Amino acid sequence: MSLHLYDTSARAVREFVPVEAGRASIYLCGATVQAPPHIGHIRSGVNFDVLRRWLMRSGYEVTFCRNVTDIDDKIIRVSAEGGVPWFVVAERNQRAFTWAYDTLGCLPPTAEPRATGHVPEMIVLMERLIERGHAYASGGDVYFDVMSYADHYGKLSNQKPENMRAAADTDDESCKRDPRDFALWKGAKPGEPTWPTPWGPGRPGWHLECSAMATKYLGPTFDIHGGGIDLIFPHHENEIAQSQAAGDGFARYWMHNGMLKIGAEKMSKSLGNSLLIPEMVQKVRPVELRYYLAAPHYRSSIEYSEEALQEAAAAYQRIEGFVTRAAEVIHDVDADAPLPQAFVEALNDDLGTPQALAVVHEVVREGNVALAHGDKEAVARLLAETQNMLDVLGLDPRSAQWRSAGSDLKPVVDALVKVALEQRQAARARKDYAAADAIRDQLAAAGVTVEDTPHGARWELSR
Question: What Enzyme Commission number(s) does the record list for this chain (predicted)?
Fold first, then answer.
């Protein structure tokens, strides 16, 4: 089975056929950097990182573009409330997003353009739209004329223009021909940053920037446009309208990840229930948080709970435990070993990570049995399969990403545990089992699990 993906615009699963054979292009709506990220934001990054890794594993050369919205109404409001320049707000929060993506093992994007760096491209796009009769300048603003594109507008979100409400993106609706028209460019206001245009100084509208940046880096027609399901309308609907009305083919597939919720509410800054990434990686390790976010199907909603988070961490630790024990027996892993067919079929079926992880756990169970029976040939095969599957998911505990996590303290921990285990072994040798058990209990209380094996005692950090 070849790769099939759910296309929001078709409301169906479609076979993935790229614009150019052997190459795949992805544009992901990234951060609006008015605040640091919570796990709802980073879920999107993890989901599309898995897609990118799977495309790469499938033999595609992938160009991955993830934008940064570094100017908009929210950033200006935070700037005013905090008494700091808007670019300071944007810069510090972009750094927080970059740290979060890196911490959770997301590969760096091929390009990460900022909105403020692409005003010339936006001006060209507006000129094209005005020339074609799909946009107009009014009072220093520039608007997209929705009714000029009425035959197509609303298809992504499955709406009809006559049933849509006003765009509500201006203080003066009298500037518009129709309340549903949306702002491409906002005229200058006192205290706000501005850039010069043929229609006067101002700043970008939210939707315009993504069309300009996507086509600059990926071309007028590209493969996949991604983002959260909350962006379908109006943001992605408006991107399609302004891009195709200007003559670009734009995205061939639209993919949207589900929301992460607390109770019945979408996680958002405005609700005050954000779970920020620095806080989350104190509860579980970053790799365990990645597992938690990647394990559900990308289109499903996640109902956050501490219990579910800890269950995900425990599930990952079971996988990690096998990999660690098997690697003590098998030192050279075949990185080219074929992936289990069931794993391939799961990911080719609209990126089915729940089914793919079920295959991982099944292979791990087989691996543990092989370890117990001392079947090194089977252990070698199953370890290779496990690590190759985990590599696709960005979860391999022996990868450079996760082996280096906490590496600053590892030599110290290694040395201290080694001393404790030597003392325990000495106690066992003199048959002082009470002292040996006491050392083991003290290590357990400190979060170190000790396992006695035919090759001697081995240990690992536990939570």
Answer: 6.1.1.16
